[in-house]
TrEMBL record:
Residue ranges the record marks as coiled coil: none
Regions crossing the membrane: 6-30, 42-63, 83-100, 107-128
Keyword Cell inner membrane attributed: no
Protein name, as recorded: Membrane protein
Pfam family, one: Ion_trans_2
Keywords noted in UniProt: Membrane, Transmembrane, Transmembrane helix
Organism: Qipengyuania citrea LAMA 915
InterPro entries reported in the protein's UniProt record: K_chnl_dom (IPR013099)
Residue ranges of domain Potassium channel in the record: 55-131
Length: 137
C-alpha cells in the first residue's frame, strides 16, 4: 500500500506541475494574441496537457501492475492502449467500469480521479478567461 501511495503522489505532483506549465504557456499566448487562431492553439495545448496526464497515469498503472500492486479485472491481458484507455476514462472522472483496477492499484485510480477533477477545473478557468476576454474586445 505504501508503494502505491508513493507512486500516486509522485504522479499527482508530476501531473500538476506539467499541467500548470502548459497552462502557463497558454496564458502567455493569450496575453500576446486574442484572435481565434490563438484560442484554438490554447485549446489544443489544454487537450495535449490532459493527454499527457493520462499517459503519465497509464505508465503508473503499468508500473503498478509490473510491481504486483494489483491488476485489472475484466481484462484478460492489458496492452498499452488498455492502460491509456482506462487512464483517460478515469482522469476525466467518467468511470465507465468496463475495466477496473484491483488491490492497491485502486489507490492510484482514486488519486488519478482527484487529479483529473482538479486539472479540469484549472482548464475550465482558462477557457472562461478566453471567453471573457473575447467579450472585452
Amino acid at each position: 500500500m505504501i508503494i502505491a501511495l508513493i507512486l500516486a503522489v509522485a504522479l499527482f505532483l508530476l501531473a500538476i506541475a506539467s499541467h500548470l506549465a502548459i497552462l502557463g504557456v497558454g496564458h502567455r499566448l493569450l496575453g500576446r494574441r486574442r484572435d481565434t487562431l490563438a484560442k484554438l492553439g490554447v485549446s489544443l495545448l489544454v487537450l495535449s496537457s490532459h493527454f499527457l496526464v493520462a499517459i503519465l497515469f497509464a505508465v503508473g498503472f503499468w508500473l503498478g501492475a509490473e510491481w504486483d500492486l494489483g491488476g485489472f479485472d475484466k481484462a484478460p491481458t492489458m496492452d498499452w492502449m488498455d492502460y491509456f484507455y482506462f487512464s483517460l476514462i478515469n482522469v476525466t472522472t467518467l468511470g465507465l467500469g468496463d475495466i477496473y483496477p484491483t488491490d492497491h492499484l485502486r489507490v492510484l485510480a482514486g488519486i488519478e480521479a482527484l487529479t483529473g477533477f482538479a486539472l479540469i477545473s484549472c482548464s475550465a478557468q482558462l477557457f472562461w478567461t478566453m471567453m471573457h476576454e473575447g467579450e472585452k474586445a
